[in-house]
Amino acid sequence: MTTTLWPARLHHLRRDSTEPERLAHWYGELLGDRVEPLANGEWLVQGHARRLIVGRGAQGAVPWIALAMKDAAHLAGHAAALDQLGVPRAPSPTPLFLDGAFSVTDPDGRRVVFGLPVRVSGIQGAMHARLQHFVCASARLPELLAFYRDQLGARESDRVLDGEDLAAVFLRSDPEHHSFAAFRAPESRPDHHCYETSGWMDIRDWGDRMAKLRIPLWWGPGRHGPGNNLFFMVEDPDGHKVEFSAELELMKEDTEFRTWPHEQRTLNLWGSAWMRS
User: Fold this and answer.
1) With 160 labelled, which of 5, 117, 167, 255 sits at a CA distance of 20 to 30 A?
2) pTM, entire model
3) What number does CATH give the domain 9-115?
């Protein structure tokens, strides 16, 4: 079944901090990206194919994520589909999308923004890594799945089952295995965001960059079951996780989801795993 969301791609997100300038410069150093102030005390960290807005707010929060649509007709068609489903639309909070962008709110109160990016040229980054997906933990996992799949139109790629209970879900909005995922947890919170590299040797090079910056690897390297991607994670100063990934699985729009058991090997085929519940 074709949806009006396909093919949308994660373009940027907002990270909140009690010290936004400090956090923005940390990400600038981590990624080798340009850091510049925006209005309202926000900061933009920007490199080739990756953008992050940092604002003042609760430590570790991600109040919204922003997906880029293919063109104006794609954006208008998705807006019409959401209106038909009765999904309330609100103005866009981001300065990085053109007029006409809009947002909706998921069951955990996080806003999902849809729009067309403002054109920017001449942006470079120290190394290749494209912003690719965002993951949260949630005490409302079935509600999140229903919202992102049945209302927003994301395709379910994989689910993790603890007996008959849903423990994690991975959803895609284009051929890449997931642009959004969620894990069952006692409380709803951001989990991590991810930068997709061009291959295993990039994972090595980013690991060497972490060593140069004296940023220890928090988890990995390893290989996820769902998505089959190589990865490692680090922590930012507020405890939010940042993933670097390679060789994420590609799936057709009509490919049905698969199921995995709730165990460490599902999350890391190579060894130990970060179990959220």
Assistant:
1) 5
2) 0.96
3) 3.10.180.10
